[in-house]
Amino acid sequence: MNNRIVVLCAMLVAALMLGGCAATQPKAMSKDDLLQNRSAMIADARAAVPQITIEQLKQKIDAEEDFFLIDVRDPNEWPIGLVDYENVVTASRGKIEFIAPNRFAVDDPLVVICKTGGRSSLAAKTLHDLGYVNVTNVSTGMDDWMAAGYPLKD
After folding, report:
1. Helix runs in the chain, H state only
2. What pLDDT tens digit does each residue of the chain (154 aa) get?
3. Which residues of 74-98 are buried (b: 16+ CB within 10 A; e: fewer)?
4. Contact yes or no for 138/54 (Cβ under 8 A)
């Protein structure tokens, strides 16, 4: 009788463990679902950190404010142009979690920019979630910076 109880308990535990694993698998989604999820992630990220416009970024630079401007575009995008600012740091979005702790103090003022504002929103939220306390995101990005005719580094 005791062996049967032990076997039944082991089977119950195994069933619960396997059932729990299956419950965590994502369901199949359409491309539209994935795009909606991405939009929701970006919206959540934007809500988590302060946002500035390219005009406000230009004002900060013109006022000679001291901050790090982190360009999280991919390396192949940097030759297109970087904001003409002495404290521009290039760090692609996929590496920001690994670069930031060795590069920035927790209270350094950090402003994050990308091409259009999506990747920088996600990267800024990542920095915020890591524990950085002074993170701001540029709500649009380099496309608008260049369209406005603002200066680029040579």
Report:
1. 2-23, 31-48, 54-62, 96-103, 118-130, 142-147
2. 567 776 665 666 665 565 555 556 677 789 999 999 999 999 999 999 999 999 999 999 999 999 999 999 999 999 999 999 999 999 999 999 999 999 999 999 999 999 999 999 999 999 999 999 999 999 999 999 999 999 999 7
3. eeebeeebbbebeebbebbbeebee
4. yes
